[in-house]
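At this stage, I wrote out one protein, both as residues and as discrete backbone shape codes, and that material follows here.
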Amino acid sequence: MKPLHYCVKLFLFPLFIFISENTLADDAWQNASGWWNATDIPAFDKSKITKQLSLVKVQGNKFVDESGKVMVFRGVNISDPDKISRDKHFTKKHFEVIKAWGANVVRIPVHPSAWRKNGKQAYLAMLDQAVIWANELNMYVILDWHSIGNLKSQMFQNNSYYTDRGETNDFWRTVSERYAGINAVAFYEIFNEPTVFGGRLGIVSWEEWKAINEEIITVIQAHNPKAISLVAGFNWAYDLKPVATAPIERDNIAYVSHPYPMKVPAPYEKNWERDFGFIADKYPVFATEIGYQLATDKGAHVPVIDDGKYGKRITDYFGSKGISWVAWVFDPDWSPQMFTDYETYEPTMQGKHFREVMLRENKN
């Protein structure tokens, strides 16, 4: 019969090995230089950010800067950087024209199909450059995962918008970590336009959509707790009525509406107030797409067709509510266009109106 102390040693020896191996494994996974963390994607070169814009925060139903001054954002959507690059106009000049038009914010729509086509490394290089230019020109950035459809059912309006829950979460994990500490990248717009398209794209309840957003926001805030997440309503990011009784249960949140001219009939202001405007009395609201054109203009389509009166009507309404906005779209091809050609950047009907308002209202 073996002595008791010998048996105890035999029992403890494999336990010691188990604990040691797991401790080493834990240490190994935390070691950033190990092969398990290898990546071919260079980190964002933060030395290119030679100045920091004031950090934007949510305070009540307003955006404020570091001193507590209320900030209202008025700017433009660019087209997807992939498209501008193919046009050979992804240059600082393009952003300088936007600044000259008075914008204080630029929304960058990232189409899932373009994200995959370019690959992470190449697409992030474009985003890095856009962030650097915007920061140099004192403009803030909205990063927008530009899909249209039902993320729950994973059915989308067309192939360019196809994504899934895993890819969407990974996109936000990637960019929120990459731009943490860069104040110019103030807004993370979770999903461009949620819609079930009258049942064509399945079903999703507000409670389900709320939970999907809250999970993504958890990922974003784990990497960048100061980021402001933008959450869109249903009906192609128009209807915010469910927020009244079931708001997103996270901090640093604002809500998105896209109130294009054909979304509701007259009385416009009354209907806007009913569908999304009343939310601005309690939470920040950001209209991340607005725009209009005549029925005879190039590319005219539902829901952007108007007789020309919508522009003043919508910006006056936003002014009365303190709602921030970005116009769609600073491009000569995608409609409704804000300018006619890259050579002259001649503004269209809506381009003239939005430029006038930005130059007047963004002076401070």
Residues 137 and 320 are 28 Å apart (CA to CA). The two ends are 89 Å apart (CA to CA). The first strand starts at residue 57 and ends at 59. Residues 4-21 have pLDDT under 50 and may be disordered.
